[in-house]
UniProtKB/TrEMBL annotation:
Coiled-coil region: 305-335
Protein name: Cysteine--tRNA ligase
Names of required cofactors: Zn(2+)
Gene3D superfamilies: Cysteine-tRNA ligase, C-terminal anti-codon recognition domain, HUPs
Biological-process GO terms, alphabetical: cysteinyl-tRNA aminoacylation
Family: Belongs to the class-I aminoacyl-tRNA synthetase family.
Principal subcellular localisation of the protein: cytoplasm
Residues that bind ATP: K272
Length: 475
RNA sequence: GGCGACAUAGCCAAGUGGUAAGGCCGAGGUCUGCAAAACCUUUAUCCCCAGUUCGACUCUGGGUGUCGCCUCCA
């Protein structure tokens, strides 16, 4: 099997990926807290991981992909109070919106989307285990994890407990033995959802759910754990502390930690707390989801990605180029021909595909990989031109090979999946006008032809005459 | 204050110890009744200083700048 290298946050270097079980890969990606609309910064890890898992699947791996919903949380409770809804209604609604957003970005569904509210027994069991082993202590119905008890605390984020103490800027709960201790179980306050537990009515702390869910669905040890780099500390650091303390071995939990960089606005992190964000839905009003997806993948996942309307436009222009090559490829494939004119094209495409896979295998370098997609697109366009405009005889067999390679790469990037839209009445009317113009042109009635073109232009319709007819699209 | 990342053409963005992928924009061209669209061609010596080396954008040290984490956050 192809050698895949991955940058591991834990070791701060690229490592050769060795699956725990041959031919299989287990992935746990931190999902969202469904308290409002997902913004495009939220979307980045999911687009990234969707691409990574597509790649693994293409390489022949059996992928197990788990992504949670933290549906029991302070923010959800707050929103539910504000909106006069139950926490469940808030979570369910936002999970629906989340799926709509991800569908638009061609993000395939994870195998399981566990929710905190469905994992309470496992969480309680884990908290109890931590208490039993002396890693957690109970105070007034709250349960805290004792960071000093876990000697590896800080290994993921690369800081020592002393560093953290020095930098502590938060008000410390007096009941904590160490300021860095964190809650694994919180006692219920009036008006909050709660579950019964050995420590009284309460709910899980923030980090424990991922430890419990990954254990439940992927086992004590699994291959990848991913998320945004802002989760490295404290979230993932705490997950490691919980999981490895619980199972009693440093080998437990994720082997490779993969963190994506942020999306920024004017070079500043996009975040809900800063309020400088665009929701995925905002973007979808102006651009197809594939454009946003492509925009994200044109930059390496670990680099920061500065968002602006202009850059999204650039990405769209690039994607259109690819789409156009695809249309040309479709048009050519409909032809027959047994000439031997596309041998070089097929070879170049296969070679580009190999380079594409090599790029992906080097820490999922989608930015480099995409360049090979453009290379093949160019070759296809050139060949299209030769066949359609210069009368070169068509080579169906070799062209088919090139086209397959092109589509194979596109499938990993997750483009060319736009759903066919149903023709509206307006579309039919436009089609009719386009037909009329074609007829007018045949009769060299340029006045009428131009009149129709202008008419459509005024309605925001752009015509594209080609050798095979006229395509049109909304500007 | 502690820890870390990054600095490549007008814009975005890969990358390698041996003279820089790709995209956007711009320019030129092909096609077209004209146009649009499409397509083709074309555009850099890699923040500054010093060092290592036959040779550095790529390694080391220093500087400057930007950003992030340390608090909820993808």
């Amino acid at each position: 099997m192809r050698t895949i290298q991955v940058y591991n946050t834990l070791t701060r270097k690229k490592e050769v990926f060795k699956p725990i079980e041959d031919g299989k890969v287990g992935i746990y990606v931190c999902g969202v807290t469904p308290y409002n609309d997902p913004h495009i910064g939220n979307a980045r890890p999911f687009v990234t991981w969707d691409t990574i898992r597509r790649f693994f699947a293409k390489c022949g791996y059996e992928v197990h992909y788990i992504q949670n919903f933290t549906d029991v949380d302070d923010k959800i409770i707050r929103v539910s109070h504000e909106q006069g809804k139950t926490w469940k209604e808030v979570a369910d609604h936002n999970i629906d919106v989340y799926f709509q957003s991800m569908d638009a970005l061609n993000v395939r569904r994870a195998d399981v989307y566990p929710r905190v509210s469905d994992t309470i027994p496992e969480i309680i069991e884990m908290v109890q285990g931590l208490v039993d082993k002396g890693y957690a202590y109970v105070v007034d119905g709250d349960v805290f994890y004792s960071v000093e008890k876990f000697k590896g605390y800080g290994k993921l984020s690369g800081r020592s407990l002393d560093d953290m103490m020095a930098g502590a800027r938060v008000e410390v709960d007096e009941r904590k033995q160490n300021p860095m201790d964190f809650a694994v179980w919180k006692s219920a306050k009036p008006g909050e959802p709660f579950w019964e537990s050995p420590w009284g009515n309460g709910r899980p702390g923030w980090h424990i759910e991922c430890s419990a869910m990954s254990l439940k669905y992927l086992g004590r040890t699994f291959d990848f754990h991913g998320g945004g780099s802002d989760l490295i500390f404290p979230h993932h650091e705490n997950e490691i502390a919980q999981s490895q303390a619980f199972c009693g071995s440093e080998d437990c939990f994720a082997h490779y930690w993969v963190h994506n960089g942020f999306i920024t606005i004017h070079e500043e992190k996009m975040s809900k707390s800063l309020g400088n964000f665009f929701t995925v839905a905002d973007i979808l009003k102006k651009y197809p989801g594939e454009v946003l997806r492509f925009f994200i993948l044109q930059t390496h996942y670990r680099s920061p990605l500065d968002f602006s309307d202009e850059r999204l436009k650039d990405a769209q222009a690039g994607l259109m180029r690819l789409e156009n090559a695809r249309r040309n490829a479709e048009e050519l494939s409909a032809k027959d021909g047994a000439a031997d004119t596309a041998k070089a094209l097929a070879e170049a495409a296969l070679s580009a595909k190999e380079s594409f896979y090599t790029a992906m295998a080097d820490d999922f370098n989608t930015a480099l990989a995409v360049s090979y997609l453009f290379a093949v697109a160019k070759d296809i366009n050139v060949y299209y031109n030769e066949v359609v405009n210069q009368g070169t005889a068509f080579d169906k067999e070799n062209f088919g090979k090139a086209k397959d390679a092109f589509y194979d790469m596109a499938e990993i990037i997750g483009i060319f999946e736009a759903k066919a839209e149903e023709k509206s009445d307006e579309d039919a009317e436009i089609d009719a006008l386009v037909e009329e113009r074609l007829a007018a042109r045949k009769e060299k009635n340029w006045a009428r032809a131009d009149e129709i073109r202008d008419l459509l232009k005024a309605r925001g319709i752009v015509l594209k005459d080609t050798a095979e007819g006229t395509r049109w699209e909304r500007a």
